[in-house]
Specification:
CATH superfamily: Alpha/Beta hydrolase fold, catalytic domain
CATH class: Alpha Beta
Number of helices: 12
Helix content: 25-40%
Order of helices and strands: HHEEEEHEHEHEHHHHEHEHHE
Largest sheet: 10 strands, mixed
Strand content: 15-25%
Number of domains: 1
CATH architecture: 3-Layer(aba) Sandwich
Structural class: alpha/beta
Shape: globular
């Protein structure tokens, strides 16, 4: 049977009308169920008068936290030790009104302070993938920890909003909050003291890749960054991407909308990436990001970027085989970071590197 991890990736890489339909369905979804199996929950915060978040302010015009004031409250946790090689901790975090975040932390057993990789698959991915044992086993290979969550206005974080408001219509909120979340999660992990914060990587797919770029541009703690088909170049993307429902497109090409989106365009933030190693994977065949936008994003990447191109669906599937998420490259680069001793359980670079080049 086809591996669940691969099925989820293929769903996110569906072409043309399938992906547009998926986006439209997600845009019109009713309030998402916030319950997570095995995770104790509290009622969603419905009132802006909740005293826990008094004084919270957030500047959504920048991925940096410097001009925001978010207040984390005490997290709720549930630890599952039943898996043979790893543990799974489900954690509910919150630092703004009405937006609890379900974090999934997978730790390899027997490793005191493992390096950690953040996984962000982007809209419309929900948390289903994070509960799958095949995925959990894959991301904890080689002594690595994995931290997974979904972006703002996505999955369990989409609730109590008018149906017309969704990830794209509220793009500045979706991207700005999510980039802030990455940094707040890194703060949380650092405060725990049980991860190797000198070896932090991040993997982002599509809009998750966009958010990862924004976060890496303002947070040097992300040492290795790997993105697949990030969205960006908003004027061209909004005007031409088949992901946008045609009846909504006029709303997203107005000067006001594009002005707000422009402050979070990865084309402008790519040159500022602070990761020591950066890989840009480009599925040339997929149409969600227009070809002209892909070219502009690649041109904005910093010197030293490793590019990998997949010209066909078959090439992409070869790089993401049935039992792999292709985490070999990011694990390898984290293992061999300059100035740090090499971990014992090193891995070889991904086979896809044979079709890559450095800028």
């Amino acid at each position: 049977m086809l591996n669940f991890t691969r099925l989820m990736l293929k769903r996110l890489f569906a072409l043309g009308l399938s992906l547009v339909a998926l986006a439209s369905t997600s845009a019109a979804q009713a309030s998402a169920d916030s319950e997570v199996t095995g995770l104790s929950t509290t009622p969603l915060i419905q009132s802006l008068h909740d005293s826990r978040f008094a004084g919270v302010t957030e500047d959504l015009s920048t991925p940096s936290l410097a001009t925001s004031n978010l207040k984390p409250v005490r997290p709720l946790r549930n630890l599952d030790r039943t898996h043979p090689g790893y543990t799974v901790e489900t954690i509910r975090l919150q630092w703004r009104w009405d937006d609890p975040i379900d974090l999934y932390v997978m730790r390899p057993k027997g490793v005191e302070k493992p390096p950690v990789i953040l996984y962000l698959f982007g809209f419309p991915q929900d948390t289903d993938l994070f509960t799958n044992p095949d995925f959990q086993n894959e991301v904890t290979k080689g002594g690595f920890a994995a931290v997974c969550f979904v972006p703002a206005l996505t999955g369990q974080r989409y609730h109590d909003r008018p149906m017309k408001e969704w990830f794209i219509s509220e793009l500045q909120e979706s991207l700005g909050e999510s980039a802030h979340d990455v940094q707040m999660i890194l703060n949380f992990l650092a405060a725990r003291g049980d991860f190797d914060m000198n070896r932090v990587g991040m993997f982002g797919l599509k809009s998750g890749g966009t958010i990862a770029i924004l976060a890496s541009a303002v947070d040097p703690r992300i040492k290795v960054l790997d993105v697949v088909d990030p969205w960006g170049d908003w004027p061209t993307w909004m005007a031409n991407s088949p992901f946008i429902p045609q009846e909504e497109r006029p709303n997203y090409v107005t000067p006001d909308f594009l002005k707000k989106a422009s402050t979070l365009d990865p084309v402008d933030w790519l040159p500022k990436i602070q990761a020591k190693k950066f890989r840009f994977q480009d599925a040339v065949f997929e149409p969600v990001t227009p070809a002209k936008s892909k070219e502009k994003l690649r041109a904005a990447a910093p010197s030293g970027t490793t590019f990998v191109f997949y010209k066909t669906d078959q090439e992409f599937e070869a790089a993401f085989p049935e039992n792999s998420l292709d985490t070999q490259w990011i694990r390898h680069e984290l293992n061999v970071l300059p100035g740090l001793s090499t971990m014992a359980s090193t891995t070889a670079p991904s086979p896809a590197e044979s079709s890559s080049y450095k800028k």
